[in-house]
Amino acid sequence: MTEKYMIFNDLSKIRSQSNRVLYLSLILTFVATLLNGYLTYLTNESAKNNFYLLDNGQKLAAVRIRSYQRAVDILCEGHIRNFHQLFFGLEADMRYIKRNIEGQALYMGDHSIQRMYNRLVDQNYYEDVAKSGYSIEVEMDSIQIDYAKYPFAFRFTGKQRILKNGRTEYRNLITQGYLEETKSSPNNLNGLKIIQFHVMDNQDL
Fold it and tell me: Could you say which of 23, 56, 136, 147 is the most buried, measured as most Cβ atoms within 10 Å of its Cβ?
């Protein structure tokens, strides 16, 4: 009788220990799940604050920005600045001009930019630049964007610096238009489009 009681007692202890191990495992699993979920949340929140600066479609650096509005500013200003560099910055090389304008700049806006490009082509403007040996660089003074109403109205103020036969000349460059969202593509990574684009002033200084 005593032996039967000892065996029964041992089985009870084993069962009790097994239950403790099971409960402890469940608790540890639950804690690990909560911890993993929390770490995933922190990672996602951190990723949301990382934005890439783009230059001609190339990622330059990841910038940590906590303000959503500041991220929008960087994206919109970068799109406008890059477009002006590609469209108005020219070299005495037709392949260079076509690669920048036809290969990139035209994808960053609507038909208003295409019409302007066609008009300049008809006037042999780009051929004249290529034959003359001129080099034209864009210098930005300011970009003003009105976020109060969509699409966002913008105004670009800057200059074209023209290197001509060892001399430097300047031409005013003031443009305006609107920015609207569009789908991202390999040719337009920012997912923005310039619409109703106009050159307000492009006179020699």
Answer: 136
